[in-house]
Amino acid sequence: xxxxxxxxxxxxxxxxxxxxxxxxxxxxxxxxxxxxxxxxxxxxxxxxxxxxxxxxxxxxxxxxxxxxxxxxxxxxxxxxxxxxxxxxxxxxxxxxxxxxxxxxxxxxxxxxxxxxxxxxxxxxxxxxxxxxxxxxxxxxx
Length: 141
Known about the structure:
Elements (H helix, E strand, L loop, with lengths): L1 H7 L4 H22 L1 H7 L13 H23 L5 H24 L7 H25 L2
């Protein structure tokens, strides 16, 4: 545990912020421009591109992304991952094994009208974001 906590002091916080910014921008584009209509449909809502989202729908994902990226940065430092290949491997494992699996598990509940479609729209976002943010963390040492 000490090794993990010690890794926190060696994190490049600028890289964490850059990765968080990238994840937030990609999420905004993904869930509005690229898949906004489909995303609204899988949630059982009417697509309204002019609707202004409540602040929680912007700040919530930003904070969650920040926490996920800090966790990834700590783990990457603790595991001494430093190459692009390491970052891609880490991003794939975390993206699929944790983020996509947790997102799909969350979608499978009686309140989600189309859990499989939700997973097909959201899963690739979390998977690709994991790889992209891992690459940012390793290339901005």
